[in-house]
């Protein structure tokens, strides 16, 4: 931008000083004075504008609509529930989480992850959970979504279900997210409508940030398992989360 302005000014000044005729020269000098003044003012305005623009760029081109912690449940020594084909909940949770992260970022929602690989976050369950809590507390996020998959004795049970901490702040967000899941996923895949349920879940009440657990489907159901292992379904989960987070961030 600055380069373009410099190139524009130079030929104008050269033209003014080059006049031999006195009258024309006077006109040229007056004109050039006014032009100088005008250009100086323009230059100042541009410098101010560029400085403001530069500051905005330095702080990040577009601020995110919201910040979300995605917590891939289990990992390492704790594989979570296991499907009939040997798939573990820990690996499915991580795959869904990474896909959801990608989609949320495309939707201008910043994501903080608790775990990024197959490992646990501590040597035992207590250490692992405390480390997740530490990441959540220091995230400054607008919401926490812990990604899990469910298992039930009856293989016919299907669908996405949301839970929140009985003493946490996630009740309203959980109800909203459950409603979105019901509308966009449960109606489509299993025709079953769930209500968000409260329980004694450490991860959902270890901070003051509205926190929920999304059980994304049942690995004990073969159709759900197929979905849970597909990127397309993870994208649908992400769409629901993005929709809910954005409307919550907008206060709707
Ligand atoms: Zn789980």
TrEMBL record:
The keyword Lipoprotein does not apply. It holds the Pfam family Amidase_3. One of its GO terms (biological process) is peptidoglycan catabolic process. Keywords: Hydrolase. Transmembrane segments: none annotated. SMART domains: Ami_3. GO terms for cellular component: outer membrane-bounded periplasmic space. Residues 133-246 form the MurNAc-LAA domain. GO terms for molecular function: N-acetylmuramoyl-L-alanine amidase activity. This is N-acetylmuramoyl-L-alanine amidase. It comes from Candidatus Caccalectryoclostridium excrementigallinarum.
